[in-house]
Amino acid sequence: MSATDIEQDPQRLRWQCRRGMLELDLLLNGFLDAGYSDLSKQGRGDFVRLLAYQDQIIYDWLMGQSIPADAALRDLVGLIRAAMKR
Predict the structure, then answer these.
(1) What was the pLDDT predicted at 18?
(2) Residue 42 belongs to domain with CATH number
(3) DSSP 8-state symbol, 36
């Protein structure tokens, strides 16, 4: 299954947001509900790409303990972090 297929199937995307850490489940699914629909096609692809990383890496990014080297992922992490504050 391609990233595009996942982007366009809300159930599969939600499944991909299920992680081994409850905190990540809540953060990623919260963003899926509150901010994903506002993303551009590229942003949606970046979100799927983000989900390919290990839980601890994503968690560190979202908690501000480290920063992604990739500029697009940095921007996306910033959007997710901003959505967490709403």
Answers:
(1) 93
(2) 1.10.150.250
(3) G
